[in-house]
């Protein structure tokens, strides 16, 4: 398993609608329900989101986020970077099981 930092950079906030937000939440919830999200957070200035996900390949993460409603509707872009995890809190060991 590999780990990735996904930054969603808001490029066109004026295009965000309530229905698009609901579609985004429903779509990204599939990763959470699959246990592939360690955490997701908005930056306090609402300019971007930061999410740590796990997947087998970079291609799998790219494919998922390139089909995401905000991306498709030009609300934001995604920057995806593979992480080389070398330390984590002991209570997250179950999530990082393949990193040890």
Would you write up a description of this structure?
Pfam families: YCII (PF03795). The protein is of the alpha+beta class and 100 residues long. The protein has one domain (2-88): Alpha-Beta Plaits (2-Layer Sandwich), CATH 3.30.70. 29% of the residues lie in helices and 31% in strands. It has helices at residues 18-33, 58-66, 69-72, and strands spanning 2-10, 37-42, 48-55, 76-83. It has a 4-stranded antiparallel sheet with strand order 2-3-1-4, covered by helices on one side.
What's this model, at a glance?
This protein has 100 residues and is α+β, with helices and mostly antiparallel strands. It has helices at residues 18-33, 58-66, 69-72, and strands spanning 2-10, 37-42, 48-55, 76-83.
Give the mean pLDDT: 92
CATH class: Alpha Beta
Percent helix range: 25-40%
What CATH architecture do you see?
Answer: 2-Layer Sandwich
The percent range for strand residues is 25-35%
| Rg value | 14 Å
- Helices and strands, in order, run as EHEEHHE
Q: How far apart lie the N and C ends?
A: 11 Å
Gross morphology is: globular
How many individual β-strands? Answer: 4
Number of domains: 1
Quick one: CATH superfamily? Dimeric alpha+beta barrel
Tally of alpha and pi helices: 3
Strand order of the largest sheet: 2-3-1-4
Structural class: alpha+beta
